[in-house]
Write a structure and sequence with these properties.
single chain, alpha/beta, Rossmann fold, 2 domains, 5-stranded parallel β-sheet, 23 strands, binds ligand PMT
Amino acid sequence: MTNLKGKKILLGISGSIAAYKSAFLTRLLVKEGAEVQVLMTPSAKSFITPLTLATLSQKPAFSEVSSEEGWNNHVEMGLWADAMIIAPATATTLAKMSIGLADNIIVATYLSARCPVFFAPAMDLDMWAHPTTQENVRRLQNYGNHLIPVGEGELASGLAGPGRMAEPEEIVEYLRRFWQQEQSLAGRKVLITAGPTYEPIDPVRFIGNRSSGKMGVALAEAAARRGAAVILVLGPSRLSPQQPGIQTIRVETADQMHKVAVQHFPAADLAILAAAVADYRPQEASLQKIKKKSDTLNLELTKTPDIAASLGRSKKPGQLLVGFALETQNELTNAREKLEKKNFDCIVLNSLQDAGAGFNYDTNKVSILHKNNKIRNFELKSKAAVAEDILNEVEALLR
Ligand code: PMT
């Protein structure tokens, strides 16, 4: 069982009666060997004293972005942490986090944090059930944050129902499970293609497409967080993955992407092909800028190499090849055809018919089709969350 020894944890406490549980949570985390930095909203101090939390965490508990002692650097803390937990997370704090209203140290640090963020809401049942709160929770999840579900039972108001903050032991267990799952790809090599390709027409123009690279980069980051050594072959994209464990190889054309993918596939346990590769390129790229002379201009196009098909042909037992299908019509039929033809082990279907799915969005809506005709349909969610779903599905096949 993963322990929390040496983990650096930011614990954000907002103003709720459940704040007393955060003292137990702090104690449990410290007992597990974690280093805990407590952050409080000003109203949390009405429920529990900074001195109690400072004593338990063996560090001053910060409740202001700046204080008489100086500037409590939320950016540095956000970069320092391995995880941030907001417990209790009140309706107000959830709302502020969801719109980025950084008027306290918790939200300012949350916006600077690069680590996984967990939130354990605590509020009365009607506040919890309110569509605004539910929308804020959904939005925070879509940004890739992790909800630690509320419990049901007696509430401070005297009413009974859902809204209780999870117990400290449950929160610790949640973190343990998270980090255990995190390392589920340790020792594995994962090859990912992402982004568009640009096929030159002349030194100025190219044939390209609308892919931003977001889906593939989210997959690379998720795989690296799970401990994989990732090679990301990235077409022209403004994105730069930050996660350690990712070797990014930038390419421009389908030919270049093909060459790099073929070179690295033999050592990979798993390849996921999220790139939108041009199927055709100009037969000849002009060395000089093409001048505007006649009313029409014919470009002769020739097929690019099919990277997926090449990898599918050379796939060895034990290797997994996962493709994407971007469709606009006859989605299932076309995806099944690609699954067979390119020798994928499974294929991730996204359709431009679905609002918020496909190119450039921060969200995607996918179905995963397997060889045995099994299909898993997923809701519209952030590309970070879609990446986790895909890896969960693929890991089951790797096992
Ligand atoms: O980058 P984003 O803006 O986040 O958008 C994400 C995405 C829409 C690009 C992504 O989710 C996606 O659907 N990627 C695949 C796009 C695509 O080209 O699909 P396709 O149905 O044309 O290709 C089928 C599969 O063959 C894909 O895995 C593709 O990577 C692969 N292929 C295609 C052509 C080719 N020459 N070589 C290939 O490897």
